[in-house]
Model the fold of this input.
Amino acid sequence: MTRSFADTAFRSALLWASRRSTIGRVATALPVSRGLVNRFVAGRTLDDALRVVADLRASGFRTTVDVLGEAIADSATARSAADAYLRLLGALKEADFEPNVSLKLTQLGLDVDLVLCSSNAELVVREATRLGGFVRIDMEDHTRLRPALELGSQLSACRLSVGVVIQAYLRRSGADVDRLIASNIPVRLCKGAYDEGSDIAFDWKSEVDSNYIALAKQLLTHAEYSAFATHDRNIIDQVIAFAEANEIRRDSFEFQMLYGIRRDLQDELIRSGYSVRIYVPFGPDWFPYFMRRLAERPANAAFVVASIMREGRRAD
Done:
């Protein structure tokens, strides 16, 4: 299966828009976007997120919570983001929820200063570890891959509770998975949602899917515990079939899905006895995340994107 030229062009346009701060400012003020945004984002405040986590927990799901934000350009805002994660971890623990969070390094100052980012990330990871929780370092585009992997390795070597994300659309991911398995660093495997060149990433969905399955088999066979982030029923079925055929315990892996996507499949997996963790994003800086979700499912929201981009051009 391949993408059409129109699909590829539209996806690229959405990813381009996700990086435009002017369009983002306009989008957050448009009433037309709110209903669809609420499908993917668990509100703007910590209290909103805690209510969603409570509902998911009552239904048998595990969660990882993300304070939305990325591409921070100054040290004060990066430190504020770290403080927001510290408050989130404390609130989750106080509510007797699992203090499990996901974060992006550009939110903690990666584009400002590597030392600043590392310090902020270590602060959050140490607090999560102290509380009996876990931090997942999300991946961004390939230019941020190396520092994310290196920081994850450094923090893990300090016996802190941290894991990283591997994106199946990157050509280098097989070698990265081998190194992470050897270092016993937990991996979340996803497909990838950034716009990369053909020399960096596979062009076609069929290639990405094939690589995802190959990487999943590596992880199931050799890793202590892994997370498979996908809404693709075919891939989920193949992961389950491989695990069953090789007598791999269900408590050695979990499925992860995004809040608001394929709740029917999420419920089915829970009923079948699999562990399912929901990625719960919240906060006012929802625009880049939202646009990447539209890039994955553009047909559902073309009218929202058209409105956002039309108003954004007027603002420019």
